[in-house]
Amino acid sequence: MTTPHVETERKYLIKYPDTAYLRTLDGCRVLDMVQTYLDRLSEEPETERRVRTITENGVTSYVYTKKSPRARLSRFEDEREVTREEYDLLRKDAYSELIKTRYAFPFAGHVMEIDVYPPEIGGEIFDGYAIFEVEMDDPDETVEFPEFLEILREVTDDKRYHNKTLAKKLK
Assuming Cys at both sites, which of 70, 89, 99, 143 could form a disulfide with 74, CB separation 3.0 to 4.6 Å? Predict the structure, then answer.
């Protein structure tokens, strides 16, 4: 297991982006993901666990993640790549799953991430909208937004926009 690091991120609701334009950005990565949320462990009831497949350019990797609360915008995150066999074994503890495409690109010293979801997942919440996330070094850091994005509002603390909540809708 790797040493957990502190993840500090903000999340924003945005107008659905021009994904063809996003693909043209220098350094843009297009990642098709399936996130599977796992039952909590009795010895770690506050810890969220998931496995995900990440497919980029036809190559699929498997990642196991544990996240534990730390502060409002921060969590301890322990993430490691796993084999297909480990992934299949961990999925036996699955309780919900979420499909999304992530566009990740460098901007203003950060990696910006835009998640778009199939219509059946977000329903009216994501009809014409997407989620923009940025991981920061400090919770008080000012975020510079790309001009081509239309930021509607911050949703960091709005549980309706958390991936785990969206995945539960599909149970």
Answer: 70
